[in-house]
Amino acid sequence: MSLSIFLLTGLSTSSFFLANYLTRIIEKNEHTTAQLNFAIAQENETALLHVWQQSKQGSENWQNLAKKLAKNNGEVAFLLANFYFNKESLGKNSSSQSEQAILWYQQAIRLNYSRASIALAELYFQQGNVSDAQNLIATLKVMEFSHTQGDSVTFSAIILTIKIAISTGNVKLAKSVLRKFSSLLQANEVGASLLSAIDKYQVLPSIGDISLERVSTSASCTTSIQFFATNLSNLAQVERLVKHFKHQPLNDLVCFSPVRYISISALSCSSALQGAILCDETKFHEIADSVTTRYIAIMLPKGGANVHFGMLYFDAQDNIDVVEHEISHLLGFVDEYPLVKGHVKCRASQQHVSAQNIAVLQNSYYGERSSIRTKILKQLAWAEQIKKSTPILHLKNERSQKDQYWQLGTPEQFKHEVGLFKSLTCDNNSVKQQSTFNAFKPLSDRTKLQYDELNFPKEYIRLLLNNSQQFLMPSFHYNIALAYYQQNNIKQATAWLEQAAGWESVDSKRKRILQGAF
Fold it and tell me: How many whole angstroms separate alpha carbon 139 and alpha carbon 216?
C-alpha cells in the first residue's frame, strides 16, 4: 500500500484493520471525502450503503449501487425488487421490469429476507401465475402462525393464502385459515374488507353465519342471468361490468342476479390457444338448484368468449363490448362475421325463422316477384321493418327471357334502409354452397355483431322490443341435458330437458326443447 493512500486517509502505517476502520468511521459519519472514495473503490459495503442512501431513488447510480449491495444485503435486494415491481405496475417496459423484480425478490429470499417471499408470491398471483404463488406461500406454513401474531408480514401471508385458496378452489384450506385468524382479520381494515367480499359473493356459504340465499329475479324478466367468477378479483371485475351494462342499449331487456363465486375445482373447462372456452356442462347440475335465472355466465381466467345455448363464457381480459356482444347471442342474434367452417347455421338454407338478425336463404328464385317476396318476408324476423318500396329482389340475366331469375338482395341505392343485405356469416362455406345459399342481414352497415366496438343499432333494439322471446336461447338446463345425452345418460337428459322446457311460454318452442331439437 502506497504512502500517499495512507496520508490521504489519515491512517497510521501501523494499522492492520483498514476495512474495519473505514466501516467504523463511515458509520459514525466521521470520514473524509477521500476516505469515502477509497472505501467505495474497495467496495466496502458500509461505504456503498452510505452513498446509496444519499442517491436519488431510481437513478442510474442508485440502481447500480443497489445491485452491488444486493449480493449480500437482503433488504436492499427487496427494495430493488420493489422498485422494478412498481415500474412494472406503471407499464414501463413491463416484461423486462417484471423479470428484474422477480430476479431480485428471489435474491432477497436466498438471503432469508422473509418479506420478499410474500412480495414475490403477490407478484406471481397478480400476473396470474397462481401455481408459483401457491408453492411460494406454502413455504411460509401460515397455519403454524399464532392466531394473535399481527405483524405486517404475517398478516399479508394470511390474506394471500386465503386469496390463493379461493382462486384454486381449495375451499377446505380457505375455511381453515379464516377460522383460525378470524379475530385478526376482523380487527384490520383490509381483513374486514376481505371477509365482506367473501360474504357478499357467497364464497364460503357454510362458514360462520354466512348462508346461501337464492336471489329471485323479477318474474317479468325473461332474460335473467347469473354471473359467476372463480376468484375475488374477477368477482369484483364482473360486478363492475354488470354496473357498466346499465349504460348499454340492451340494459332494459336483461336482468342480473348478484354476482357469485364458483370454485374452479368444481368446473372442468379448457381452452386451446386463442380458442373458445369448452366445459363439461354436466358439472353445472351441482349448482342448478341454487340458480333462479334462465342463463348462467362465467368469467374464467383465460379463454375465448362464446355462448353455448344457455351458457355464456368469457375471460378476465374481455370488456363490456365483448360481454354485450355475447349477451346479444342469448337474445337470439347471430354473428355477422364469418362463422367457423361447417357451423350448423350455414349447412343449408333455413326452413323457419331462427334468428333476430340473420336469415340463411337461397340466392336465386324463379317465378312471380310479388309471391316470391311474400314467401321471403315470412322467413325474416325483421320483415315488418322493410318498407313496401324497398326491393329485396332484383332481376338477373335480362338479355334472355328464358334465363331470367330473381337474385336475392337489396340494391346498393337502398343501403340506408332496412332490407336484405349479404352478411359475412356463412363466408367460410364452400364456393358451391355460397352459390346456392347465403346469409342475409337487415342492415348494410357493420354492427356490433361484426365488431364488438361498434354500436348496437336501434333497428335491432326494435326487433327485441317487438319480439323478445321467440329467438331466445334455451335455459342453461338445456346445456346440462345435452351434456348428459352425449354421455348416453338418457334418463338424466330427459329430466333436464323438462326443466329447460319449463322456461318457455310458446308451445312450439317448448316442444322443440323437449325433443332436444333446438
Answer: 44
In order of 112, 121, 166, the CA distances from 117 in angstroms are 9, 6, 20
DSSP string, 92-127: SSHHHHHHHHHHHHHHHHHTT-HHHHHHHHHHHHHT
| Euclidean distance between CA atoms 192 and 122, whole angstroms | 19
- Per-residue DSSP letter, 71: T
pTM of the model: 0.85
Distance in angstroms (rounded) separating the CA atoms of residues 19 and 43: 10
Check if the beta carbon of residue 229 is closer than 8 Å to that of residue 238: yes
Distance of CA 131 to the CA centre of its chain: 18
How remote is the C-alpha of 392 from its chain's centroid? 41
The grid coordinates listed for 353 are 325463422
DSSP string computed for 354-383: --SS-EEEESEE-S-HHHHHHHHHTT-TTG
| Backbone torsions φ then ψ of 439, nearest 5 degrees | -95, 140
Report the DSSP beta bridge partners of residue 360.
439
What pLDDT, in 10s, does the model give residues 36-91? 777 677 777 777 777 788 889 889 989 988 898 899 999 999 999 999 988 655 55
